[in-house]
Known about the structure:
Elements: E1 2-5, H1 11-16, E2 18-28, E3 34-39, E4 44-46, E5 49-51, H2 58-70, E6 73-87, E7 92-104, H3 114-118, E8 121-126, H4 128-137, H5 143-162
Parallel strand pairs: 1-6, 2-7
Antiparallel strand pairs: 2-5, 3-4, 3-8, 6-7
Helix pairs in contact: 4-5
Amino acid sequence: IAHIELEPVTAKEAKTFRKRTAARAIVFDSEGNIALLHVQKHKHHILPGGEIEKGEDANTALKRECKEEIGCNIKIEKELGIITEHRKKHEMIQTSFCFLASIVGEKGESKFTEKELEDQFKVLWLPIEKAIKKCEADEPKNYSGKCIQKRDLTFLREAMKLI
């Protein structure tokens, strides 16, 4: 889908950066709303998903992350593409595999990590247009939040072209 940089990164710098891969989704419920996580402590929103762990593929990681973060089993409907982020400050290149998905069964309870609880994660279910407006209105206080805002808005806007 896109390549994102908050500040330019040279090819030489990029070679030394740590590589991280992740899977993310725009997850629809039966009413056509999507899951959006509000990171209340840092004043921004994030789409569900996370790091692909050793031994996992993107689909397995995404299903695990959605179960943990939004308390839902999901069905992956479509792969939209890849977003690559160069995070200069973190010396990291993150590759996110981006999907559209729908929930299967009932909405359950999130099982947030200690860090997510500390950051005051809260699940919201909103029409995609409202989710975009919330993300656009965010004013992230930290570097990661600025990266996330740019990445997830890119993903949401690309998805809007297809739905």
